[in-house]
Amino acid sequence: MVSTQLQAYGDQVMNRRTRLLPLLLGLFTLLTCASAAVPGVESVVVIGCDGMGSLAFLETNAPVMHRLMREGASTLHARGVMPTSSSPNWASMIMGAGPEQHGVTSNDWETNRFTFPAIEVGPEGMFPTIFRVIREQKPDAHTACLHDWDGFGRLLERSTVNHVEHVKDAIETAGKASKYIKEKHPQFLFIHFDGVDHAGHAFGWKSPTYYKSVELVDSLIGDVLQSIEDAGMGGKTLVLVTADHGGVGTKHGGESLAELEIPWIVRGPGVAPGTMISTPVNTYDTAATIAWALGLKPPATWIGRPVTEAFKP
Ligand SMILES: [Zn+2]
Shortest CA distance to 65 belongs to which of 279, 224, 207? Predict the structure, then answer.
């Protein structure tokens, strides 16, 4: 009799569980997949410094980036993707996925020249970038990209961006970006600086000239931050500073941590100041974090995850 009662009770619990399980799963999916806009974030400015691997921080006097690290959340152990060349890494950063998904495997990649196709191809023949995600879900948002390296411009869907401009020279790029911020108040701006990579290739990563070029880009980041303040966007802009790869000798593209490790620094509304991010961060988490902070749904083909540890609970 007791065992029958127990059996009935067990069945009841199991029934309740089976009814509850899909409900809990649904709630979990909703919580994890739903885009959770970070309160106060109205704009995002990404500053990508070509060749500025984490080794750049070893012997550099970079007061601006160190201030950003104190005021924001950061890690010097974020990683790029293989191979450690520019296009695969810039693509991964703005496409929220790796070369295996977006197909940008080398600097030779073009929308009509690739070794294997992307797993999702949008209207302009490429894997969805954060620019497309913003355009589709926030049609009125003003977006722009000012890039120092010519090749960057081919990695995004031109029709989704209000303004794309190749500006040669880092100082010029910073000047134009600052002017742009003050005039247009963009909701999303990507600034690409190339000078550090040039110094690495010409004089060697970790050479005195390399470190000098990091210090120059640090001061240019300071100019951009000042323009964000001047534009009245200071309290509502998420600023993200990162890089595509580091280098060894006068090269990159190989399989060393010196080439793979990159800084990942974020500061702005909702960011927990002084946080040293301990969860693993990959460059493809950048796009996912931006989408999450802006409350946008990421494409199903993205593998990046938002770096939630950087934000206040
Ligand atoms: Zn590069």
Answer: 224
